[in-house]
């Protein structure tokens, strides 16, 4: 009776402001049969650090390289400053 656990990036959504929403499913199986699934969601903002980027799934990193342009980062930073005011 072998239990296995695997993580799957189930959904990646890009918002208009450049934020990337990521949904990961953790799937537990016993001898190849589904036992349970848990869902974890997180958001990757355009101002994330290089260390945060390195911790992302390769597909998410590729999207970050495309979406997080200097203009998007600048616009996001301006939006954050406006929220603080």
In summary, what is this structure?
This protein is α+β, with helices and mostly antiparallel strands and 85 residues long. Helices cover 35% and strands 41% of the residues.
Instruction: Flag low-confidence runs.
Output: none
Taking the sheet with the most strands, its summary is: 3 strands, antiparallel
**Quaternary structure annotation:** single chain
Extended strand count? 3
Distance between the termini: 58 Å
Per DSSP, what share of the residues sits in E-state strands of 2 or more residues? 35-45%
Radius of gyration: 17 Å
Percent helix, as a range, is 25-40%
Which tags fit this structure?
single chain; 85 residues; alpha+beta; three-stranded antiparallel sheet; 3 strands; 35% helix; elongated
List the helices and strands and how they pair.
Elements: E1 3-14, E2 20-30, E3 33-44, H1 50-54, H2 58-67, H3 70-84
Antiparallel strand pairs: 1-2, 2-3
